[in-house]
Structure formats: structure tokens, C-alpha cells
């Protein structure tokens, strides 16, 4: 056997051994590490569908494609006070239960029109946990979308602060 071939194969095996744990995801855990929140995989998937319903994909990428649910989780974990974090965690459970109670099916199983109608009816809900959870999620989703790389590079066209000099502008 050639020394170069043996070394190449050894590097392939070592690279595969390093990448294999990254490909294996333990079921039940969240995708990102958080210090203050304990999110399960099912709750993360629910949040991803909620974010996708708030900002659906069309000719532009949607909330799930831009990973806004992870942004929401990280912002709540890092930037909110413990009362908001507790309300968020209680709210995600209450939101799931309320969706099943109000429509007879889980939020994940609904089609897009039912999800949208369900979200539009949330301001009239008596449960404050659901309202607060939805308000936090919606606010952070919009913030994440407006600060995403896609919006900042492709949709917004910036002009530096003093702007262009237009010596031919007519004053009335």
C-alpha cells in the first residue's frame, strides 16, 4: 500500500469520526444551548411552526427558513428577566393546550388558513399566559426578521447618513 493512500484514508476516517457526533441529534433536546430555559424538541418545533405562520415563506424566505424560532429562544433566554422567561415557558404549554382545546387539533396539525385564523383570534382570548407568550414571540420574531441577514442585505437599501448632495434641488 502506498503511504499517501494510507494517510489519505486515515484522514477520511478521522474526519468522519469527528463529524459523526455532529450529525447525531439526541431526540427530545433543543437545537441550541440555553442557560435559563428548558425547551424540549416538541416545543421548539411548535415555536418554529408559529414563527412560520407569523412570517410565511413566499418569494422571500419565511420565519422557519431564517431560523427565527432559534432567535426567539435565544433572545428570551438572554435578554428577558426571569418573570418573562417563566411566563414564556408557561405560555408555550398553555398555547399548545389552548390550540388543542379551541380547534380540536394540535397547532402543528392545522393547515395554514386555520393557523392564521387561530392567531388572529388570540387577542380575544381570556388566558393571559397565551396572550403574553404570543406577544413575546411575535415581537421577537419581527425583530429577528428585520435584523436578519436576508433583510439587511437584500431588502433594505441604505444611504450613508449625510446622504447625497443635490445641488440642483429646488426650494419653494
Question: What's a concise summary of this model?
Answer:
The protein has 7 helices and no strands.
Describe the structure.
By secondary structure, the chain is mainly alpha-helical. The protein has one domain (27-155). It is built from seven helices and no strands. It has helices at residues 3-23, 41-54, 68-79, 82-103, 112-120, 128-146, 149-155. Helix 4 (82-103) packs across helix 6 (128-146). The model has no long low-confidence stretch (mean pLDDT 87). This is Gluconate 2-dehydrogenase subunit 3 family protein. It comes from Sphingobacterium phlebotomi. Pfam families: Gluconate_2-dh3.
Strand content: under 5%
Sheet bearing the most strands, described?
none
- Annotation field: number of helices: 7
* Alpha carbon gap, first and last residue: 86 Å
Number of beta-strand segments:
0
Report the principal-axis shape: flat
Question: Could you name the ranges where pLDDT drops below 50 across 5 or more consecutive residues?
Answer: none
Give the helix level as a range of percent: 55-70%
Please tell me the total number of domains. 1
Helix-strand makeup class:
mainly alpha
Radius of gyration: 23 Å
Series of H and E elements = HHHHHHH
Mean pLDDT: 87
Which oligomerization state do the chains in this entry correspond to? Answer: single chain
Protein name: Gluconate 2-dehydrogenase subunit 3 family protein
Pfam family, one: Gluconate_2-dh3
InterPro entries: Gluconate_2DH_su3
Organism: Sphingobacterium phlebotomi
Amino acid at each position: 500500500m502506498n503511504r499517501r493512500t494510507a494517510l489519505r484514508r486515515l484522514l477520511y476516517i478521522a474526519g468522519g469520526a469527528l463529524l459523526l457526533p455532529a450529525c447525531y441529534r439526541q431526540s427530545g433536546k433543543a437545537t441550541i444551548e440555553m442557560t435559563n430555559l428548558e425547551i424540549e424538541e416538541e416545543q421548539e418545533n411548535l415555536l418554529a411552526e408559529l414563527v412560520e405562520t407569523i412570517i410565511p415563506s413566499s418569494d422571500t424566505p419565511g420565519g422557519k427558513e431564517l431560523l427565527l424560532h432559534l432567535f426567539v429562544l435565544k433572545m428570551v433566554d438572554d435578554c428577558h428577566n426571569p418573570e418573562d422567561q417563566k411566563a414564556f415557558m408557561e405560555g408555550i404549554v398553555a398555547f399548545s393546550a389552548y390550540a388543542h382545546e379551541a380547534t380540536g387539533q394540535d397547532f402543528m396539525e392545522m393547515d395554514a388558513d386555520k393557523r392564521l385564523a387561530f392567531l388572529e383570534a388570540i387577542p380575544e382570548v381570556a388566558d393571559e399566559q397565551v396572550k403574553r407568550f404570543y406577544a413575546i414571540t411575535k415581537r421577537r420574531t419581527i425583530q429577528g426578521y428585520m435584523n436578519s441577514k436576508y433583510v439587511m442585505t437584500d431588502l433594505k437599501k441604505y444611504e450613508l447618513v449625510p446622504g447625497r448632495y443635490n445641488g440642483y434641488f429646488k426650494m419653494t
